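B., you asked whether I could sanity-check this one before it goes into the benchmark set. Here's the sequence:
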Amino acid sequence: MSVQKKKILFVGEGASLAHIVRPLALSKYLDLDRFEISFACAEWYQWLIDDSGFTFHPLLTMPGEEFRQLLNRGKPLYDQQRLKEYIDSELILLKKISPDLVISDFRLSLNISTAVYQLPHIAFANAFWSPYSTQRRILPNLPIGKLAGRTLGQIIFDMSYPLASYLFHAKGINELRKSYHLPILKSLEEVYTCGNWTLYLDIPSLAPTKDLPSHQKYIGPILEMPHIPLPEWWQQWPKDKPIVYVSLGSTGDVPVLEKIIRSLDRPEITVLLATAQRITRKHWPKNFFVAPYIPGQEAAKNAHLMLFNGGSGSAYQPLSCGRPVIGFPTNMDQFLCISMIAAQGAGKLITSDKATIKNINSSIDEILSKPSYTKKAELLAKEIDQYNAVKNFIAFVDDWDRGKLTYD
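And here's what the prediction gave me:
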């Protein structure tokens, strides 16, 4: 007798690539004899979903460039109108599919849509956004930092953040929750992590929390990303030079990337550069090996150092290989991640105002010449190795399937 498969819908916020590849990387490990998998996101990522073999459903998503501009300016990512449009599109999709479980990555409106149909909802998030995080909020690249300086700007930011983030950033979602007779969320952190269950894709050392409730837990970082073919030039670079892997992803600062490229135009270093299709040139320095995308884990294994935007989506790949990093953050998400790595001694943080060619070069030389950075990264690699995100995720879904998990 055949058993009817349970339907699981994955939803990624397509304004950022990271929120697509993280759930997609885990979804492929679920048992297809037990579950029917479908994936909803922006149409421009359909090629990734088609490669997985899952059913693709297009979903309304703001353009990536608009998302980056709002994020980097510290403005609310979604106003009430945008959230209402998201919810309307999600309700149509949920009614059409009628899933048994919804799993999302930074699709903030889903905490309303799933509640309307009383569907169980797992939210992926980073633990530095947990309401139970013990990490200090860090001033991103906002005008207040330029006007008052980072030290005074941080003090002003600390004083204003709790109230401002609630009134400014959480207002839209809470107004809509009221209209659906749902309880309001008390902070921006609750907005970012709201689900019947919240699974944190981190390790405690880099995203510490205190007194997590039972419906929130660490499962560990996702290291294996969806398949990206190796570039034609793979393994053609010189093996007798330090290798620096550069990837600022879909949200990195392009002007800073230009400075990084100029600083790495040095014959004694080999550079592996993933452009994410955000920068083009007719001619590259002779020591550069360039592709739109490069398998991050493979690049990290071969590199001695990674330069990136500071975000967790890329950070765990080099760290899991015991490789130090230099982060160039622009938004708070990236500042929170790279600041903890720097505090652990496994890398350095360079703000945009400090990202001069001279400073970038000196930071690269310091990390390549001092073994302490690699040793600290190797310690983090041991902790990362203790968390198997795939195994923990499968176990969590199995518990749900067997009725071992309850939700409000």
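One thing to flag: The longest helix spans residues 150-169. Otherwise nothing jumped out at me.
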